[in-house]
DNA sequence: AAATAAAATTAGACAAACCTAATTTTATTT
DNA sequence: AAATAAAATTAGGTTTGTCTAATTTTATTT
């Protein structure tokens, strides 16, 4: 169907399209993939020819109906494989992303559907991201971050925005995972650091960046 | 570690090296991969530089210790994934080879070991080929074919030599799978066709080629 | 041993996906 | 509005892995 690179571009463009009010420019795509903008311009041409994206200098890059469909399927495969790796093979949540990054490109037509059934039709992946269904629909992604909460309230971790190993390993160390209860005790007004209590234990202080990368419900 | 192409060449060379008394020439490799001999000569140079193979005009291509090790790991992954696809995802045995052909290249260090454990340390893949263990050792491959049997004897299907969909689907139609009991009723001396009884049912006639591609015990 | 056929190799080309460096276009300051 | 900065694009290259066509080497016939 598509090459590995085409698929990675489609996925990157899809991800950027999920961020509200962001114009998808060659530089944005280049940053997101770690490529040179000149290379991105080449691929924009190729994907435009294949009618998977449209490029308008004013509004930037957008996915066509077909392009979005293909991108969502790749995301679906990625997240299903992540569930498999964590639940069936016993990996930790900081180890699965890179492997799923390869597995997502296996292109057999019924594989995702069979895997989904085998896994019991999970709605969310191990990072709390919703898994697109075969029809393209998916649960609403979580959007309220720990940093958005009011002091004195308690919430549950629903998802992580940053899926880098560095962040996920830090969370493992702090004993924070999906479902963990966090109480926001205090916001330090100087730098917006957050004083939190994890599962009712002693207080810990975390940075604003940290708080923005944890999504809660 | 290696590129997709390098891995496919290593695997092809390994497979040829399993066939007794066959000199591994550029044309043999080209035939086995569906490539042009000129391309093979390029890759022989590359793999020789990487010290994965040795090429001697007299004796042909051979794997170095490292090359064999790498090839066996790819075969290990291929066969483990085939077991997964059949046993966990419900594919039939004629559908799994091509998917495993892609999955075998996923290169995470612990993936094969975890998969093996998850599958309960299977010794043979769904086609009856032995699965190399983590230490490189594996059960002896089956080698006696149905065509080698004496008239009047009964045996059990242990493996198939040909894993093409055409052959496997024919076997599905005849209700022959691993473990099926076959009695050899008669050998037609004219063309070596075989008259067999499958699981004690009415006689069926199959070709010599057919009989040579079924391994029994 | 010549002649012929087959296999191996070299030479040169091409597509994919990247790059750097130079240039052009667009946006932001002053 | 100029000047400056940033972004986008073009031009030209590189690597990988493939190909075809031509040539050389090796093997098989006669
Ligand atoms: Mn990917
Ligand atoms: Mn994820
Ligand atoms: Mn392969
Ligand atoms: Mn097999």
TrEMBL record, chains A, B:
PROSITE patterns: HTH_DTXR. GO terms for molecular function: DNA binding; DNA-binding transcription factor activity; protein dimerization activity; transition metal ion binding. It is found in: Cytoplasm. It comes from the Bacteria. In the presence of manganese, represses expression of mntH and mntS. Up-regulates expression of mntP. This is Transcriptional regulator MntR. Residues 1-64 form the HTH dtxR-type domain. Keywords: Activator, Cytoplasm, DNA-binding, Manganese, Repressor, Transcription, Transcription regulation. Belongs to the DtxR/MntR family. The lineage of its organism: Bacteria, Pseudomonadati, Bacteroidota, Sphingobacteriia, Sphingobacteriales. InterPro entries: DtxR_MntR_Metal-Reg (IPR050536), Fe-transptr_FeoA-like (IPR007167), Fe_dep_repressor (IPR001367), Fe_dep_repressor_sf (IPR036421), FeoA_core_dom (IPR038157), HTH_DTXR (IPR022687), Iron_dep_repressor (IPR022689), WH-like_DNA-bd_sf (IPR036388). GO terms for cellular component: cytoplasm.
């Amino acid at each position: 169907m598509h090459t590995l690179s085409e698929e990675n571009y489609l996925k990157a463009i899809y991800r950027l399209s999920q961020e509200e009010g962001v114009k998808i420019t060659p530089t944005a795509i280049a940053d997101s993939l770690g490529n040179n903008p000149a290379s991105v311009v080449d691929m924009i041409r190729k994907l435009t020819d294949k009618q998977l994206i449209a490029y308008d200098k004013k509004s930037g890059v957008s996915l066509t109906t077909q392009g979005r469909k293909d991108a969502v399927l790749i995301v679906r495969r990625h997240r299903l494989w992540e569930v498999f790796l964590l639940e069936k093979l016993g990996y930790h949540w900081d180890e699965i992303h890179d492997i799923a990054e390869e597995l997502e490109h296996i292109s057999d037509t019924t594989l995702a559907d069979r895997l989904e059934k085998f896994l019991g039709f999970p709605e969310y992946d191990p990072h709390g991201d919703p898994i697109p269904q075969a029809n393209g629909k998916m649960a609403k992604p979580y959007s309220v971050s720990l940093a958005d909460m009011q002091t004195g309230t308690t919430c549950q971790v629903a998802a992580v925005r940053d899926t880098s190993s560095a962040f996920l390993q830090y969370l493992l160390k702090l004993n924070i995972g999906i479902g963990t209860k966090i109480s926001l005790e205090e916001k330090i007004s100087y730098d917006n650091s957050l004083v939190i209590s994890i599962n009712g234990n002693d207080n810990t202080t975390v940075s604003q960046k940290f708080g923005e990368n944890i999504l809660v419900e």
